[in-house]
Design goal:
Elements (H helix, E strand, L loop, with lengths): L1 E12 L5 H6 L1 E11 L2 H6 L8 H14 L5 H15 L5 E8 L11 E8 L2
Antiparallel strand pairs: 1-2, 2-3, 3-4
Helix pairs in contact: 3-4
Amino acid sequence: MDHIFFNRMAFYAYHGAFAEENRLGQRFTVDLELGVDLAPAARTDDLNQTVDYGRVYETVKDEVETKTHALVETLAERIAAALLASFPAVEEVMVRVTKPDPPIPGYYDSVGVEIRRRRS
């Protein structure tokens, strides 16, 4: 399986289990890997034979910035479902949602989740 990837798409949104996260918001980053057969696009040099990267970004942005969830697990699941529903050429998707600054005591770079989903 070939892959299209997006690294560290950055958003400001209002997801979290704590009231202050939903009130103040925070930064989130999203990484994607989309499993797609890229051979037809490579052979024909035709954008219509692959996935429109701009539409992928807008789909993720819509899920992150216009909805609110308590869990990043739910956010990742919704992103994966939206991508599989919107892009028939995508056979599988990896979604990684990272919270760089969560309200958790301690020293670390970030926390987050990574999920993989396949078309059923």
